[in-house]
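Journal club prep, shared notes

We agreed each person brings one worked example of a sequence with its structure written out as tokens. Mine is GDSL-type esterase/lipase family protein. I'm keeping it raw so we can talk through how to read the token line rather than staring at a rendered picture. Sequence first:
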Amino acid sequence: MKNKSKIVIYLFICCLSVVIISYVKFRLINSTNPVSNDHIYNSQYKQQEKMFNALKPKNEYIIFLGDSLTSRGKWMHRFPNIKAVNKGIGGNTTTDVINRLDKIIILNPKKIFLMVGANDLTKNVKKSTTINNYEMIIKTLKNKIPNTQIYIQSVLPMNSKLMKINNKDILILNQEIKNLADKYKIYYIDINSYLIEDNQLPTRYSVDGIHLNDKAYEVWVNIIKKYINS
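Then the structure, token by token:
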């Protein structure tokens, strides 16, 4: 009888462990999902969209384009002296950015700061697809709004213990993105190198292994401010 009780307890603990591990994985995976899963950022996104839809085409806007790393940047607060427009959407891949380029192009912005690719990696998009999409984004912007300055920002590191992403793959992807920037004679800004330590995104810069805290955004801002003001 005692042996049976021990077996039942053991099986219960095993099942409970599986449930806990599955839940943790679910939370980590969904940390990169669209901002609609986060009521705070969903509210901010709706506000941003309302403001964006009211804008008139003008070669004064500086657009920040990308995924949740961009959407959480508080660019208008960090750069109060420019006409900053936040067009980051949580969960966006390079394909998603392509699908909404028309809304960006119609504004004829002065500058575009693009960072996208993290979700391509977490969603196992082929690297060749990501690079082809990057090239399509660059070509479309250069053809449709040739006077807009384009700044491609590197894909940022992650904490591989939490995100199960090899940062060496990010470095390889960034090199190919840089090659595209060189090919089309546009700016490439390396931010990755300033936020990586021991081939990881350190915990002091991140809230969950992929998204950034204010300290990390300060590093980002200090890198790009010379391009903002040039």
